[in-house]
Design goal:
Blueprint lengths: L1 H14 L3 H22 L10 E4 L11 E5 L2 H12 L8 E4 L3 E2 L17 E10 L2 E4 L7 E4 L4 E14 L2 E3 L3 E4 L3 E3 L2 E8 L1 E4 L2 E4 L6 E4 L2 E8 L6 E2 L2 E3 L5 E4 L2 E2 L22 E2 L2 E3 L16 E2 L1 H4 L14 E2 L10 E2 L12 E6 L12 E5 L7 E5 L4 E5 L5 E7 L2 E9 L5 E5 L12 E2 L2 E2 L1 E2 L7 E2 L2 E4 L4 E2 L4 E3 L4 E5 L4 E4 L5 E3 L4 E5 L6 E4 L3 E5 L2 E4 L3 E4 L3 E5 L3 E4 L4 E3 L7 E3 L2 E4 L15 E4 L8 E4 L9 E3 L4 E5 L6 E5 L4 H6 L14 H8 L3
Parallel strand pairs: 1-2, 2-3, 3-5, 4-5, 5-8, 6-8, 7-10, 8-11, 8-12, 9-13, 10-14, 11-15, 12-16, 13-17, 14-18, 15-19, 16-20, 19-21, 20-22, 22-23, 26-32, 35-37, 36-39, 37-40, 38-41, 39-42, 40-43, 41-44, 42-45, 43-46, 44-47, 45-48, 46-49, 47-50, 48-51, 49-52, 51-53, 52-54, 53-55
Antiparallel strand pairs: 24-25, 26-29, 27-28, 27-30, 28-29, 30-31, 33-34, 56-57
């Protein structure tokens, strides 16, 4: 740089006194400034941004520096397959972009010959229901991880890892270095030896494995005679493990936190602010030297126990969550499989998870508090209890079911409830505090009244009849009421039908002329009414009320609603509330004459929801409570004032001119 400055200076002197030199002077000053700026640029250069690639079946090997995204069991299995086949993961990142619910058996990522060497970023997501049943070593989500491996920000809930061999844990069977940060596990582990919640074993004092800001809530069982069973890591050399700001609340720890079976013990100097639950593991070996690190369950549920922990940005504690134990920010731990936990899994009639329920438990036959269970995703609701030998009733949406669950305060208890309706608990249903009854199992048609909900798909052999003077409050509850040969529901004069759908996709499907035939009063506030061939609803007389978001469809040459006579309210009967805002529907006024049809509750916000089947009339706005009437096109004002009626070519739906004159306030 000094030499460059001298050369520039010499040239500058020869040009300085000329006009050209003055221009050159400005140029050289700019050049010199640029050179000086170059010297200030860091020698490390600029880092390239990482590329993100979905880990699909098209990926056959890994490129260092690439971030591979994982959102499904298939993609996670793809990672295991490629690693176990010897593909290097060093320098690669694998990031979860969704929670994953594993089904079936799991083959661990990494084996005896092929270690996982990359970064696995859980991205604050959870893997549910990990299930490993092995007869070989290295069982867990990961089989073996290597010196450059990093596992971070990952939760594993309700895991079950069993092996007849050694090195068994939920997170990884074995670690030859690497680090695990910001992770937690819950579930059950059973193995011969080197049994633990997070790591089965570590074996490298030269490359110690670090575990930071993690916890395990696991039931541990060993089938061998050794004592290497612990909450964080089962078998270790004296300095092959370093643990900071962690706790284990596990059943069955013998040499707590980090164990060993022979050779040098793992001394407490390898731990920083790390504890275990001596209430859950009271039979731990006092010779392990862990007495001072053992805390009672109640002590571990108090923030003051955790010296030096970051409860501002890393940890949090809430008596109503995680059984009162601390948990990691960014997660809502579900406790599936954790000691003292209760987990209720809800599935609908198709086996899909139900995630919109309020789930609670209460100890049977006792005046104890109701305990809410938190939804943890995939239809799993969890909480913890501390009773001994307790039997709990399960409540869905405030209604007691016939399901009970036993929890003795230390084991992990769970139950699966199937065929849950999206509108209510199995065997129960309420509307505005009124209990509804499931439709009789043998019902196939005929008179029906009272408060009824569908708990299944119902196929009729004859129509449902709502008799004169009777009321049927019917909730479809996400199910279908169908009749392939005739109308599904017929409401007699003087009868009342209140129809809704508290589930999703409820249908009334009729096969002949109409799904619903109305002579009385029909109020529809939800659900899907569909006719297989003809009209959706035929109103022979009486009144129809539409509010909310019902969807009413018909055959292509028919109408959503066929008005032979009577009144149609595009609201719930009160013009200031609950207007119809559903999908567009077609309206046919029928073949009857003057003044026999009136349409109410149509305003500027929902007028475009109605398509008139005939082109010779339209809905026009009146000034009386946003009322609309069917108005013949082509009638001029003089005809309206004179009250004259036209017959042909407008022989259908002729209005009552007196009413038209009143509504529109013509002078």
């Amino acid at each position: 740089m000094d030499k460059l400055k001298k050369n520039i200076s010499a040239k500058a002197k020869s040009l300085w006194r000329t006009e050209r030199g003055k221009a050159a002077q400005r140029l050289l000053v700019m050049t010199l400034s640029l050179c000086m700026m170059v010297t200030l640029i860091p020698s490390t250069g600029f880092a390239a941004s990482s590329e993100e690639t979905p880990l699909n079946s098209s990926v056959t090997s890994f490129n260092s520096g690439t971030v591979y995204t994982i959102a499904s069991q298939e993609q996670l299995t793809r990672l295991a397959t490629l690693v176990n086949d010897g593909r290097s993961t060093e320098g690669c990142t694998f990031k979860l972009t969704a929670n994953i619910n594993l089904s079936g058996g799991w083959t661990p990522i990494g084996n005896k010959d092929n270690q996982f060497m990359g970064t696995f970023d859980g991205n604050s997501h959870v893997i549910y229901h990990l299930n490993v049943n092995a007869s070989t070593r290295y069982a867990g989500l990961f089989g073996r991880i290597g010196t450059s491996a990093v596992i971070q920000d990952l939760g594993i809930e309700d895991a079950k890892v069993i092996s007849t061999d050694n090195d068994v844990a939920i997170m990884a069977g074995n670690a030859q270095g690497g680090s695990i940060n910001g992770c937690y596990v819950s579930g059950e582990v059973k193995g011969k030896s080197a049994v633990s919640g997070i790591l089965g074993s570590t074996h490298s004092a030269s490359y110690p494995t670090s575990v930071t800001d993690c916890y395990a809530r696991v039931s541990l069982t060993k089938t061998g005679t050794t004592k290497d069973i612990a909450g964080i890591s089962g078998w270790n050399e004296s300095t092959s493990i370093e643990i900071t700001n962690c706790y284990s609340a596990c059943i069955g720890e013998v040499r707590p936190i980090a164990g060993w079976s022979d050779g040098g013990a793992v001394n407490n100097g390898q731990f920083v602010s790390t504890y275990f639950d001596k209430t859950l593991s009271p039979n731990f070996s006092e010779g392990s030297g862990r007495i001072d690190l053992g805390k009672t369950s109640e002590e571990l549920k108090q923030q003051k126990t955790y010296s030096g922990w970051d409860f501002n940005s890393t940890w949090t504690i809430d008596p109503a969550k995680n059984g009162g134990y601390p948990y990691l920010q960014g997660f809502e731990p579900g406790l599936g499989g954790a000691p003292g936990s209760v987990s209720v899994t809800l599935k609908d009639k198709d086996g899909q998870p139900v995630s919109d329920k309020t789930v609670e438990i209460q100890e049977s036959s006792k005046e104890t508090d109701i305990i809410p269970l938190n939804h943890q995703g995939e239809g799993v609701y969890s909480g913890t209890v501390t009773t001994t030998g307790g039997i709990y009733d399960v409540y869905l949406d405030g209604e007691k079911t016939d399901i009970t669950i036993a929890q003795n305060g230390s084991n992990a208890a769970s139950v699966v409830i199937e065929n849950v309706t999206t509108g209510g608990a199995p065997g129960s249903h309420t509307h505005d505090g009124i209990a509804y009854t499931a439709i009789d199992q043998s019902f196939s048609g005929g008179a029906l009244e009272g408060n009824i909900y569908l708990d299944r798909q119902v196929t009729l052999t004859s129509s449902v009849i709502v008799k004169n003077g009777k009321t049927l409050n019917l909730c479809l509850n996400g199910n279908t009421l169908s009749n392939s040969s005739s109308g599904a529901i017929e409401v007699e004069s003087g009868g009342t039908l209140n129809l809704c759908d508290c589930g999703s996709g409820g249908k009334v499907a009729g096969g002949s002329y109409a799904s619903i035939k109305n002579y009385g009063t029909t109020k529809i506030s939800g659900g899907t009414m569909i006719s297989m061939y003809d009209n959706g609803i035929v109103n022979y007389s009486g009144e129809i009320y539409l509010s909310g978001l019902p969807i009413i469809t018909s055959g292509s040459s028919y109408a959503s609603i066929y008005m032979s006579s009577g009144k149609l309210f595009a609201n719930d009967g009160n013009e200031t509330q609950s207007y119809y805002t559903g999908d567009k529907l077609t309206l046919n006024c029928g073949n009857y004459s003057s003044g026999s049809i009136a349409v109410y509750g149509v305003n500027d916000s929902n007028k475009d929801r109605f398509t008139l089947k005939n082109t010779n009339y339209e809905l026009q706005k009146g000034t009386d409570h946003n009322l609309h009437n069917l108005v013949i096109k082509g009638i001029d004002k003089k005809d309206l004032l004179a009250g004259r009626q036209r017959t042909e070519p407008f022989g259908r739906c002729l209005p009552d001119w007196g009413r038209i004159r009143r509504w529109y306030h013509f002078a």
